[in-house]
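Re: Re: ligand-bound prediction request (bumping)

Still looking for help on this. To restate: I need the protein modeled with adenine bound, output as structure tokens. Inputs repeated here so nobody has to scroll up.
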Amino acid sequence: MKILTAYPEMFPGSLEHSVIGKALKENIFKIDTINLHEFGIDDRMSIDDEPFGGGPGMVLRPDVVEKALKSIPEQHNIESKKIYLTPSGTILNQEKLRNLSKLEKITILCGRFEGVDQRAIDVLGFEEVSIGDYVLAGGEIAAQVLLEGCIRLIPGVLGHPESLLEESFSNNLLEYPHYTRPQVWVDSLGNKHDVPEVLTSGHHSNIKKWRLNKSIEKTKNIRPDMYINKEQKQD
Ligand code: ADE
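Reply:
Sorry for the wait, this slipped through. Here it is.
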């Protein structure tokens, strides 16, 4: 993975921890950052400028993005999927992560400021991707979200790969609720809370049915949009 960013010190960031960090140490994936500031122009090494047409903020220059991209070995660039993280891109979802996780090479451009000159995006072949309908200060955290979502899907990264089969979004359903010990939890006010009985019954097919029903109930309540899609997909 190559990351074009004005803040290379933000990487690997969260990707250094937990299962993803273990995969990084085991070289299941690799992260190289390319510092956009090294490709700035003029004696001030500027990487951005005012937007044509006026308006607030600064825009990342296309020539800077091109120079930074060209510093990556050509072979990588030819084979690599290029993604520009921006709130005005198509929304990332689990299906997209599944597709991205099969790719060997990904190059991510992290925006800052008001955005990136559109010519760089179009000419250099970046796909615009958003991690959700909200605006962050830049693309670096978004890049870590995308990479974490992708890397955990690479075979061998998760300790329990079967958890991928039942997790949220895998069948257009949210995942059922989970419970663990103690079987009766007495909270600090002295109230007792039991675990649903079926889960301690040892009756596997009833447990399966209960979980599916809970998934359906939860999806209908929390994500009716997703449930409608599921019904349409089954038609
Ligand atoms: N940069 C700023 N906000 C973003 C978002 N929602 N998704 C991707 N990149 C971003």
